[in-house]
Amino acid sequence: MPPVSLKVLARELNLSVSAVSRALNDRSDIAQHTKDRVRALASKLQYEPNPYASSLRGHKSKTIGIVIPAVHNHFFSLAINGIEEVARENDFHVLISLTHEAPEQEASIIQVLAAGRVDGVLLSMARNSQASTHLTVLRDRGIPVVLFDRVYDDLPTATVTTDDYASGYQATQHLLEAGCRTVAHLTISDTLSIGKRRLQGYMAALQDWGLPYEEALVVQGHTNEALNTPLIEELLRNRPEIDGIFASVETLAMSSYDACRNLGLSIPDDVKVIGFSNLEIAALLNPPLTTITQPAYAIGREAARLLFRALQENVHLLPADSLELKSELSVRRSTARTR
């Protein structure tokens, strides 16, 4: 009689192979009654684990994977520093992979990491990614994943983010309090969680001030950053009444400076600019840039702590384990009231 495999148990119990495997390994995400059913059938059919496969599963790489869109963004550089601090405390290495904002590249990286390269994954999703189906391979193989900053709303795991809605509201309200009445919003994507929530905050602030929301004033930037300056120039030429710009990412704030300079517009006399940014040089720009500063280092550190909790306690992280940290408004001359 051939040996009983996980596939046989799964078929008999009408469960997935991964569910059977997690039940036999006493994973916390499997209900106790399911574990009892699996173990009872395994005992009845005299199931014996494959010792070679078990040894492979038991091998620990002492490495965690970090999957991010880019490293030139100062936010991600700071987040990596926070992650590395926690990894060193746990005697782990980090493996950094860049998606370059390409969803297909993100999916390819996940397949490689799921093959045993890492024990856990920290991920900030690529721009224009639509769904998290490519991440199910991690769960199936017992590799925990924590999302940070840019998150998939359809993946039932822990996330570490900032208060993007409240910060989007605060940024817009600050411009309105500074005297702006036609505020443009520059966004990175209409599918990213951060883009959607910051836009919702922008819309809510306009509504509370009795100002109409105009779709034409919301402009999505390009992945190719060289195209963003002419894009903003076109917006400002077409809508000369724009007196405020809320940039949802720092690259779009920098492009706004370039566009205003090219058009001979003065910041803050003609156009006031505020942007999400962790740039250390924000205070050195001409004029110094008013920013919404995310706690990037803390986001990386807390995401890593959650991941190591999953690794050390053998628990399945849930959305209830998620954290939301507060960003900070730093007011500088780019939004000064001048008249």
Q: How does this structure look, described?
A:
It comes from Hymenobacter taeanensis. This is LacI family DNA-binding transcriptional regulator. GO terms for molecular function: DNA-binding transcription factor activity; transcription cis-regulatory region binding. With 339 residues, the chain is α/β, with parallel strands linked by helices. The chain has 3 domains: 6-57, 434 Repressor (Amino-terminal Domain) (Orthogonal Bundle), CATH 1.10.260; 60-162 and 296-325, 3-Layer(aba) Sandwich (Rossmann fold); 164-294 and 328-335, 3-Layer(aba) Sandwich (Rossmann fold), CATH 3.40.50.2300. The protein is built from 12 helices and 12 strands. The protein has a 6-stranded parallel sheet, sandwiched between helices. A 6-stranded mixed sheet has the order 7-6-8-9-10-12, with helices on both faces. Strand 6, helix 9 and strand 7 (218-220) form a beta-alpha-beta unit. The relative contact order is 0.13. The mean pLDDT is 91.
